[in-house]
Amino acid sequence: MEYFLTEQQQEIKKLVRTIAEEKILPVRAELDEKEEFPWEIMKYLAASDIFRVFIPEKYEGLGGGCLDLCLVIEELSRVCSGVALCYAATSLGTEALILYGSEEQKQKYLPDVAVGKKLAAFAVTEATAGSDAGAIKTTARREKGGYVINGTKQFISNAGEAEIYTVIALTDKARGARGASAFIVEKDTPGFSFGRKEKKMGIRASATRELVFEDCFVPEENLIGREGMGFIITLKVFDQSRPGIGAQAVGIAQGALEAAVDYARQRIQFGHPIIALPAIQIKLADMAIQVEAARALTYAVARTIDSGGKSSTEESAMVKVFASDVAMKVTTEAVQVFGGLGYMRDYPVEKMMRDAKITQIYEGTNEVLRETIALELRKRKARQD
Ligand SMILES: Cc1cc2nc3c(=O)[nH]c(=O)nc-3n(C[C@H](O)[C@H](O)[C@H](O)COP(=O)(O)OP(=O)(O)OC[C@H]3O[C@@H](n4cnc5c(N)ncnc54)[C@H](O)[C@@H]3O)c2cc1C
Questions:
Q1: Which of 2, 57, 363, 376 is an active site residue?
Q2: I want to staple 118 with a disulfide (CB 3.0 to 4.6 A). Which of 14, 112, 246, 267 is the partner?
Q3: What is the pLDDT of residues 225-260, one digit of tens each?
Q4: What is the pTM of this model?
């Protein structure tokens, strides 16, 4: 389908596809097997200016919008969504700064991200606060000249590898979620360490770890926005970033579809390639329809965000839910097209199916996001009545 991408967007897409095929494809199985953070690839993406894509021009970026970012994530995910997450988590970790950071904060942190010198991460989740993010217990106590952070964040992408962390903590416990604030915490800050590294089902090239804060002092200039804005910032960041999960899901599904078509053309059963069988043709056609529909929705919502559309909460949730469900269905069908070989680690669709699952879970589970969409529908109807 023709998506009328700008020249810059077409170039970004082409360049990332080339990098993915030349640099990531040969090592993706090994990265997955060894659960190894892809530093070499991150450095290569940095040298190719890919981290500049989502950073404003004023801070050494290319000033690309949500769609540009989605194109990068999609192309990386088509080959390896674990690698894509290492990149995407950095954009997630800098989004609060881009949206709400002071001029000094932006000058201090964004150029280093743009040139790929530093990766970033975003931390809200805790052991007792997943979907119910408002239940966080990490505190940031005001002290002379700054804040003292105590608590543990769980399941944080890029933890241990990133240099810059956006951390949500309670500055006023009595106010619950309304008493949360967002802070920048640098990696080498005393009192900040990393806990358990998770062993995951998929996206195994990415790092997922705990952040541990024990009397960790951060200066007051590290507060993003104002005290009490922590969850407003979190929700806004997710509104912007969920199309990126949609793009990750589209990329995974596209990779699986291509692998399935290739295999179906080559595999001979009953004297013919299995692609000649109506059962396989129907599967492939349905997969292709779903991938294209997910891509169209992802690009459309990303464009709405880029054009300053009023509220993207509902649309961002729709993209994430739809595209991730598509990724799960399409990768499962791709395994089916491969038959027994699809179940083997020697073939890529097995990894793609494992990788697809996370897109239904993180940045708001699909159950919770369906509730969000239903709530918006109710609100809209109430306004019309
Ligand atoms: C690999 C990985 C990377 C991650 N990266 C990050 C990161 O970088 N930063 C970060 O802050 N977090 C991160 N997370 C956390 C992720 O966002 C949470 O895991 C997710 O929000 C779900 O929370 P939970 O795991 O506590 O599940 P729970 O909230 O315990 O949910 C369990 C089940 O109950 C359902 N459920 C819960 N509440 C409701 C409800 N109200 N209505 C309907 N169903 C409901 C859920 O849909 C789910 O099926 C990551 C997680 C993983 C696994």
A1: 363
A2: 112
A3: 999 999 999 999 999 999 999 999 999 999 999 999
A4: 0.97
